[in-house]
């Protein structure tokens, strides 16, 4: 009896202290953030508000709706601000900004950081120098044959399904992007396109192996992290608690272990070939040596971390982008027709896979890609940055040090002063001089020194794949009224894209 009473008193006291401390900090307003409206009534007091919004599955859309009501700065947590004014891009993400990646990247990183989650500026510069040759445009164009090969494997599968079969193009873009990045990065495709599924091996450090589904493991991991990561210093405690009280999150964290095992297995496989003396032209080789053959002397943990982000970010965003642009073209037949005309003017019937050299500078093809990336950026959420200890100026206002600031690409791409009729898919806005003027406000790959180093790989894959598909097939939605559902984790995922294919002309079968 006394134990129950003591437990109730302890619980009540703990909750009272937590609530009281949050209320005290709000009214104390040490950093002067109370002048900004909250995302909701709870947000100025606790990050739980943003976690709850994240759990709903589309927090960037909610922020966009609030910003559109005339709130250029919104308080998303006790110490977090969301911006919508495009002029804030340079202040938060530009090359000269003093803002750095915030503590969320630290809590999500493993024993070793990778290029995307390293927060220290000096360490970031070292990593970027190591990886710059691997991601250089010159290297990528030499690796074009790997993208062409992967596209050919996808076309082989699609040609077999041209008799009216419904194809989930969204799944196949996943298979394509994963095979392509594995071939580019590790000289060995995952084999997903040939198999028509994403079954693969996950390894343990004890040498055990098991079969898992790649996307289930990766997306389960990102779903859990994207909901709980906003708790910052409480993150590891909340992860432990979620394993105890939630079967849903317990499953996510089990999938997280399997995801760790996937890139461990892939790294071990490639490392074994490296130890045997195979000199392969891929990302892994560039990771191990510079262009003069000098070793980078990286720890295995760092190599593993870089392979993990290559297989994650290097596949997910491209797959999403491929599905999105196809959907937009299918519901805007005039734009599809114009793109086919542009492609037909440079591609021959024997160009089963579109040669990159022929299509890389086509203005309308690039406009179609960029407009889809604008409308539904694969990385949609505001990438969090922290103001320097001495504070900084954002939009002409002083923001104290240690404040998390961010801007969602989904939000900024819907600013009607920059992108008129922002909800409308209109590739023409990117053409000519007017299109060039939009460049500073296009942040699908972020901006500044921390902008996506893999954007050239993504454009290479997207360009060849879309040009090939549109030139080779007549494509229709399996259901004319189909609208994809979207769920936001750290990326904005469409759920499916059911299409039907028909060959546009008679061509020889692929080998």
Automatic annotation (TrEMBL):
The keyword Oxidoreductase applies. One of its GO terms (molecular function) is monooxygenase activity. PROSITE patterns: CYTOCHROME_P450 (PS00086). Heme binds at residue 452. It comes from the Eukaryota. CDD domains: CYP67-like. Signal peptide: none annotated. InterPro entries: Cyt_P450, Cyt_P450_CS, Cyt_P450_E_grp-I, Cyt_P450_sf, Cytochrome_P450_monoxygenase. The keyword Ribonucleoprotein does not apply. Its cofactor is heme. Pfam families: p450. Keywords: Heme, Iron, Metal-binding, Monooxygenase, Oxidoreductase. Belongs to the cytochrome P450 family. This is Cytochrome P450 monooxygenase. It comes from Neohortaea acidophila.
């Amino acid at each position: 009896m006394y134990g129950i009473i003591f437990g109730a008193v302890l619980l009540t006291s703990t909750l009272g202290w937590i609530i009281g401390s949050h209320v005290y900090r709000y009214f104390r307003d040490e950093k002067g953030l109370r002048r900004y409206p909250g995302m909701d009534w709870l947000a100025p007091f606790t990050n739980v508000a943003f976690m709850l919004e994240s759990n709903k599955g589309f927090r960037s859309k909610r922020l966009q709706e609030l910003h559109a009501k005339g709130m250029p700065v919104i308080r998303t947590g006790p110490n977090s601000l969301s911006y919508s004014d495009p002029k804030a891009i340079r202040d938060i993400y530009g090359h000269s900004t003093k803002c750095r990646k915030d503590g969320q990247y630290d809590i999500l990183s493993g024993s070793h950081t990778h290029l995307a989650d390293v927060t220290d500026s000096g360490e970031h510069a070292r990593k970027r120098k190591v990886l710059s040759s691997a991601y250089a445009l010159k290297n990528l164009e030499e690796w074009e044959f790997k993208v062409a090969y992967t596209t050919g494997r996808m076309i082989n599968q699609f040609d077999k399904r041209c008799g009216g079969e419904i194809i989930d193009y969204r799944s196949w873009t996943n298979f394509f992007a994963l095979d392509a990045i594995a071939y580019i990065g590790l000289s060995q495709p995952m084999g997903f396109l040939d198999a028509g599924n994403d079954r693969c091996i996950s390894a343990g450090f004890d040498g055990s192996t098991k079969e898992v589904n790649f996307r289930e493991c990766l997306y389960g991991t990102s779903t859990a992290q994207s909901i709980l990561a906003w708790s910052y210093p409480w993150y590891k405690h909340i992860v432990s608690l979620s394993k105890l009280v939630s079967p849903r999150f317990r499953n996510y964290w089990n999938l997280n272990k399997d995801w760790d095992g996937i890139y461990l297995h892939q790294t071990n496989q490639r490392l074994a070939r490296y130890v045997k003396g195979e000199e392969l032209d891929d990302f892994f080789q560039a990771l191990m040596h510079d262009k003069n053959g000098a070793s980078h002397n990286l720890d295995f943990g760092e190599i593993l971390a870089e392979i993990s982000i290559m297989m994650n970010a290097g596949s997910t965003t491209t797959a999403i982008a491929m599905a999105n642009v196809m959907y937009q073209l299918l519901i805007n037949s005039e734009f599809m027709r114009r793109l086919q005309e542009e492609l037909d003017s440079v591609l021959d019937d024997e160009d089963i896979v579109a040669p990159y050299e022929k299509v890389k500078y086509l203005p309308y093809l690039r406009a179609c890609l960029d407009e889809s990336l604008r409308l539904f950026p694969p990385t949609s959420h505001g990438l969090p940055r922290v103001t320097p200890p001495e504070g900084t100026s954002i939009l002409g206002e002083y923001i104290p040090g240690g404040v998390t600031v961010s801007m969602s690409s989904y939000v900024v791409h819907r600013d009607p002063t920059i992108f008129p009729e922002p909800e409308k898919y209109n590739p023409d806005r990117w053409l000519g001089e007017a299109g060039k003027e939009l460049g500073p406000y296009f942040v699908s790959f972020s901006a500044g020194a921390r902008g996506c180093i893999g954007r050239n790989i993504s454009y290479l894959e997207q360009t060849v794949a879309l040009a090939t598909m549109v030139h080779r097939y007549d494509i229709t939605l399996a259901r004319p009224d189909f609208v994809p559902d979207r769920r936001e984790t750290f990326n904005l995922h469409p759920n499916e894209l059911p299409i039907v294919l028909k060959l546009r002309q008679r061509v020889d079968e692929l080998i």
